[in-house]
Amino acid sequence: MKSILLHLQGGIRGLWVIDLALTLARRHAARLRGMTIADTRRLESIAASAESAISIVSEQSRLQLTHHVQGSVHQEFSQACLAAGVDFDVRRMTGDVRELLLFEAQLHDLLIAPCVALEPGDSSELAIPPRDLVNLLRTAPVPVLIPRGPLKGAPRVLMVYDGTAESSRLIRSFVKSELFDGGTHRLLAVGRTDREAQQSMRGIADYCRAAGMDCELGWAVGNLRSIVLPYTRKWEADLVVLGTVKGNPLVRRILGDVAEDVLTETHCGLYMAG
To answer: Using one digit for the tens of pLDDT, what is the confidence trace for 50-104?
Structure first.
């Protein structure tokens, strides 16, 4: 891993997001880029539709507050990187958050996009709700780490394999990246029958062992959505490695979305890619 992109969200108390990015950057001797994005789409829409001057002034005030928050975040990020001796740069961008973030991500090996629970008094100007964050990053060109809070030194990582190419590719990417030093890893294979789950697990389990990862093995029978959430809670996972399918949003809305479930129903982080 040579380059990491950190989506900096302002108004959040504590520097745990920056500390996590610095830890990974030092571990992999990677360059770290911090980026803030001020969403200007509403202002552009207001101007194009000739709404009242009051609406325009209100939106301009919101953007001024956003820029102020961004300035504070940039300063915190730069000071932390200098103190840690990490090669870094920082960018402030304006426009469509999704387009800019996904375009910039293709220039890096990993995107860190934190999902935070705002406390009273925090600014939500740059924070993205969990469901919106998953949908935003579903088509990211690189793996995405969505932390929910500080990851302990030896995190419990649940790698979910459902026999699809997406889950296989993501688990292999995670294992190859050697993202964390230590921790407990469990490979969970999900299938329609015990035999199917166990058989599908063998190949990916062999890959993990060959790559030097000592992981626990488990399997479950049933629907992916009905299994992952209770299993994540029972095993007390800190991070779930979960391949996501980019398919039809309407189908996901009807059948449900496991990645959304993890972020909205647990305090667990997510490592994902489509």
So the answer is: 556 667 666 667 667 667 777 888 889 999 999 999 999 999 888 888 889 899 9
Structure tokens at 82: 């200098």
Which pLDDT score is estimated for 246?
A: 53
- Name, in order, each residue with C-beta under 8 angstroms of 47's C-beta and a sequence gap of 6 or more: 56
Pick the CATH number of 3-145 from 3.30.230.10, 3.40.50.11810, 3.40.50.12370, 3.30.300.160: 3.40.50.12370
Closest CA to 185 of 273, 257, 274, 271: 271
**Pairwise CA distance, residues 165 & 175, whole Å:** 15
Domain with CATH 3.40.50.12370 in the chain: 3-145
Token pair 């002034």 is found at 57
Measure the CA–CA gap between 112 and 8, rounded to whole angstroms.
9
For the chain, residues classed under CATH 3.40.50.620 are 151-273
Alpha-helical (H) ranges within 108-256 are: 130-137, 165-177, 194-210, 224-235, 249-255
Structure tokens at 207: 């890959």
Q: Put residue 3 in one of left, alpha, beta given phi > 0 → left and psi -120 to 50 → alpha.
A: beta
Instruction: Give strand pairing partners of 37.
Output: 93
Class of domain 151-273: alpha beta
CA distance linking residue 54 with residue 75, whole number of Å: 32
CA dist 247 and 265 (Å) reads 22
Amino acid at 255: L
